[in-house]
Design a protein that fits this description.
The chain has about 300 residues and is α/β, with parallel strands linked by helices. The protein is about 40% helix and about 15% strand.
Length: about 300
């Protein structure tokens, strides 16, 4: 009887120990989860504050200048600034310094052939396959007839696993390129820095466009140097200017290009990274600025652009 009582006592102690450890572990996890949620909520509000600050910077910039270039205040990244429990950093990017995917469409929903040719040149400059231009145009256009020779419509997408259909309309994010048949992550990452998804008809800002985007504007390219020389020439103002392009290109080529380029921008993206404790939040905010300087946030995404 004494042996049975001892065994029962040991079993009870073991069960009590297991329950105590489990209760303590769950309480610790719940506490950590709650702290993480509080930190993320705090980071979200800090990021919204940084977004509002960027809107104010853009408003003042419009009052000071009608030209947007990389030597202005808005283009300077914000170094890490301390906030309660962490830090925030951010940057403003001119999205009109990129090629707008939606410009592959004409106003009537058909394919804009000159934009497709420009996109083909950009893909080649970025080291990617030119055929993505025609496939992307088919993804956007309103018809269901595959372009020749590299187009793709519902017949190609319905054979995928899982099956889906072509967008047949403008896109809101360039990540839709990953839906194209055969598109790999490596190819996508090559061209991602040069692309944007903006409203149809947005112009390329030649003051902020990267070297591959500038070179893709016309057949035969434009020779304004590589990324380093462009950055050096842009420290004090817009480069190249409309006058530079007019002097470099033929009269016919410049007049054909002029409606698609500009020295100012209306579309910007704010990238805000907030770290509080062990929690991190990255907010991407697409901002539209009108001619009067007023701005509105059109799209927000977190984690990935």
């Amino acid at each position: 009887q004494r042996g049975v009582a001892l065994i029962m006592a040991i079993v009870m102690v073991a069960i009590a120990t297991v329950l105590a450890v489990r209760i303590g572990t769950r309480a610790s996890l719940d506490l950590r989860r709650t702290a993480g949620l509080i930190a993320l909520d705090q980071a979200w509000h800090v990021a919204l504050g940084a977004e509002a600050w960027a809107v104010e910077v853009l408003r003042k910039d419009r009052e000071d200048s009608q030209t947007d270039h990389l030597g202005e205040r808005w283009a300077q990244p914000i170094p890490p600034l301390p906030v309660d429990g962490g830090a925030v950093r951010g940057a403003l990017e001119d999205m009109q310094g990129r090629f707008n995917l939606n410009n592959l469409l004409a106003d009537d929903g058909t394919v804009n052939e000159s934009a497709v040719a420009r996109f083909e040149r950009l893909l080649e400059n970025a080291g990617a396959d030119r055929r993505w231009a025609r496939i992307a145009a088919d993804w956007l256009d309103s018809d269901t007839v595959p372009g020749f020779p590299d187009g793709a419509e519902d017949g190609s997408y319905l054979s995928q696993n899982p099956p889906y259909r072509a967008a047949n309309g403008p896109v809101t994010t360039i990540t839709e390129l990953m839906a194209l048949p055969g598109m790999t992550l490596e190819e996508y990452l090559r061209i991602r820095p040069y692309l944007a998804a903006l409203p149809l008809g947005s112009k390329v800002n030649i003051c902020t466009a990267s070297a591959p985007v500038l070179a893709a504007l016309v057949e035969g390219g434009t020779d304004f140097g590589d990324a380093d020389s462009l950055l050096a020439n842009r420290r004090n103002g817009c480069f190249p200017t409309m006058e530079d392009l007019q002097a470099t290109l033929s009269t016919e080529a410049f007049h054909a290009l002029q409606p698609t380029i500009s020295e100012s921008s209306n579309w910007f993206r704010v990238v805000t990274a907030v770290s509080i404790g062990t929690s991190e939040l990255t907010l991407y905010s697409l901002i539209e600025r009108n001619s009067a300087g007023g701005s509105r946030t059109v799209l927000r995404s977190t984690g990935t652009e």
